[in-house]
Structure formats: structure tokens, C-alpha cells
Known about the structure:
Radius of gyration: 39 Å
Number of strands: 0
Distance between the termini: 131 Å
Shape: elongated
Number of helices: 10
Mean pLDDT: 79
Structural class: mainly alpha
Low-confidence stretches: 185-193
Amino acid sequence: MAARCEFRPALIARRAMMRTTALLLGAVLATLAPPAAASFLSGEALDKAADIIAIVVLIVVPLVVIVVFWLVHVLPERFAEQRHHPQAAAIQTLCLLSLVFGGLLWPIAWLWAFTRPVGYKLAYGTDKHESYHEELGEKAKAGTLLPGELEHLRSELDAMAAKGSLPPAMQRLRDDIARIESGPAAAAPVAPARGAEA
Length: 198
């Protein structure tokens, strides 16, 4: 225990000497330091840089914020169009109203764009926009639609007709599909019987 007490004053003296050395070194370095400057630019260059920064902050940044705000607010409308949502026009209107009201209606438009319109399907027989059926109809006319997809399209158009909500364009598409489905069978030549050839 006595040896421990003797060692302590030497440790304190060494620490004091290190502090003194550090202070002296700091003072020497402070006297050798170059004069402080607020910017690496000076004079006309500093004024020109300040003008450019002011233009960017006052003009460019607000324009970028407005464009980003617009692009984010039309996202629900774009998703509704991609998903062939039957109420895409109403979602578009809600997105525009959201712009007017500062974005308060945007979450509602976002949710509406991603909901399945079950009530719409019950009322009209489909949960897709007319453009979806028109695209499939064009594929069917071109002959690129698979038989299962053609059957699905026909059944949806039949369901819409049963509900009494088939627009004239969809009625023409339904008639075209009926012609396409009956076309290969009607156009196929009937093979004569074996006995009839002779």
C-alpha cells in the first residue's frame, strides 16, 4: 500500500508536464496559423457565387419542389390507369382536388387506386375499365389472345350484358368475339365422307 502512495505523485507530475507541453504546442501552432477567412472566394468571385446560390434557392428549388409535388400527386391516377380501374376518371379528379387542397385528399386517392371495386363488379358485372376490354378485343382480333383469355373476356362481357350495363362499344366487341369464336368452325372445310368420294 505504501508503494502505491509513493508512485502517485510521480504520475501526477508526469500528467502536469504533458498538459504543459500540449498547451505550449497549441500556442506555437496558433501563432503559425494563417489568417482566418470566411470563404475560399473573395471580392467579385464571392459576389458572383452568392448571386448564383440566391438564384438557385429562389427559383430552381421551388420549381423542382412543385414538379415533384405534381408527379407524386398524379401517381394514384397512373396506377389506376395501369390496373384498368373502372373509376380511374374519378381517381384523377380526386388527385386534382388534392393538388388544390394541398395534398389532404391524396391518401384517399392512393387507397382508392389500389382497392378492388367489389361493389362496382356487383353492379356492372366487371371490375375493369372499358379500355381493358378494348385491349383484349384488339388482341382477339389479331389472333394473339389465348383461348382461356378469350373465354374470360366473353364471360365478362356476358355478365355485363346480363346486368344491362353493356355500352354500345362493348356490345360490338361482344359481337366480334362471337364471330371470332364461331369463325374457325364455320371457315373449316367439311371433309367429305370416304364413301362419297368414289
